[in-house]
Amino acid sequence: MKILSIALALAVSLAVCAEEESETAVKPYPFDFCIVQEDEKLDPDAEPYAVVHEGRQYRFCCKDCWSEFRENPAPYVKKFKLLLEKKNEEAGSERADD
Ligand SMILES: [Zn+2]
């Protein structure tokens, strides 16, 4: 019966993997600044602080902002949506110098 339980364990772990894979469609973070302190640029060379929240990635300039978001994401999600709307509006109207 040992083989059967090994096979079963394998099947279960494969199912778990497949489930994780279907969740990889995370929307990337579209800004180059921290969502908590928006005047802080993200440093592409530094270790990235990121969180996936409701299928969207959020990025932060430092660990403090990262934990701040994790403790209380609601106001930052709201701010993010406003900023994204603004960004999309700007992209939709006449092109600014890029
Ligand atoms: Zn920060």
Please trace the helix and strand order, writing H or E for each element: HEEHH
Structural class: mainly alpha
Bound molecules: zinc ion
Q: Give the biggest beta sheet.
A: 2 strands, antiparallel
Our estimate of the beta-strand percent is: 5-15%
Structure characterization notes:
The chain has a two-stranded antiparallel sheet. It has a domain at 25-92. Strand 1 and strand 2 (56-60) form a beta hairpin. The protein is built from three helices and two strands, in the order H-E-E-H-H. Mean pLDDT is 82; it is low at 17-22. It is elongated and about 65 Å long. It is 50% helix and 10% strand. It is mainly alpha-helical. It binds zinc ion. Zinc ion (ZN) binds at residues 34, 36-37, 40, 60-62, 64-65. Zinc ion binds at residues 34, 36-37, 40, 60-62, 64-65.
